[in-house]
Write a structure and sequence with these properties.
Two copies of one chain form a homodimer. Chain A is mainly α and about 170 residues long. Chain A has seven helices and two strands. A two-stranded antiparallel sheet of chain A has the order 1-2. Chain A binds a DNA duplex (23 and 23 nucleotides) through helix 5.
DNA sequence: TATTGTTATACTCTATAACTATA
DNA sequence: TATAGTTATAGAGTATAACAATA
């Protein structure tokens, strides 16, 4: 447990982000375990629902390394939730399909996930929740200071953080 | 890069949290590298500033395993930023002190960290920024749905997530 | 007997490299 | 020659267990 005051915590953005991310991940992992799946398993399985994508394509969408994809699929397959079928157009590639049980798990998982999100965001009044989510999207989204492509060019007010000023 | 629409991303709380946490951590690591320290190194070093805490005490405050604390201190010590001195009251324990160079690094690191936070939050108008931080504190803080102690008793809509096996 | 810090070790997670079978 | 998927392996990061010195 943290012994700091709310004011100190509020000023520690890294802590706020790490903690919220980690705690939500823990809740998700625990909640999804009830249907026998991991968050990553759900991620892959849900994206495989159309039944037309290859391992590589799903790996790209899910931002997974192809070797990580192999392990994930091994688990899903041995759990009877997904299967690999040869691509009709490319004999090197394998299409990922969900089994009937897999589709059912995805469905139940969605309900569980929605419930967790509702629980978490439920502590915020409607208006604040909206502002909160908008802010997150703005930070993380395209051109935002926390997007992959770096802080973009719309935030050059501060120099690229050089070692100068010492307080 | 994510190909989903802002609306889809806005509905994916796990993604928003993971992404913001990870992106900020990356920025922090890069920024702090300019003064030759890691985020964890800064965390330990700043908490050692008073010069009175033992390894174990700092490990507890910083939420680090004591063995992780050892390697972290090994690095800080060989970089000349910290030193271990025997405790005057307990000959088993070692007090962690910052060297003069270490204190200087902490000082410069603080400025860098403030700059990164200002950059990131700078894209949010004053009022939204305030709502955003309040919301985060509420989620992560005591009794919040993302606090360590679990969702507390104010969110009992869903059962306490029984344990079972994952895939 | 319990605790501080250390060492050695194991485990998880993920990525790199090499291999196969195709293309 | 290049690509999809697999395998083996290595690396980072962290945790567990055993140990020495001390309480």
């Amino acid at each position: 447990m943290d012994t700091r005051s709310d004011d100190e915590i509020r000023a520690d953005l890294s802590y706020l982000f790490d903690k919220s991310s980690q705690a939500l991940a823990a809740r998700m992992t625990a909640a999804l375990a009830e249907v026998g799946i991991t968050p990553r398993g759900y991620c892959v399985l849900s994206k495989a629902l159309p039944g037309e994508l290859t391992q590589g394509e799903i790996a790209e969408i899910a931002l997974l390394d192809k070797t990580t994809m192999v392990v994930t699929l091994d688990h899903l397959e041995s759990a009877g939730l997904a299967r690999r079928v040869p691509s009709p157009t490319d004999r090197r590639a394998r299409i990922v399909q969900t089994t009937e049980a897999g589709a059912e798990v995805v469905d139940r998982a969605r309900t569980i996930i929605d419930g967790v999100y509702a629980d978490v965001l439920g502590v915020l009044p409607e208006h604040e929740r909206s502002v909160f989510l908008d802010a997150l999207v703005r930070l993380v989204g395209r051109g935002g200071p926390l997007s992959d492509l770096g802080p973009a060019e719309n935030v050059p007010r501060r120099k690229p953080v050089r070692s100068s000023r010492a307080s």
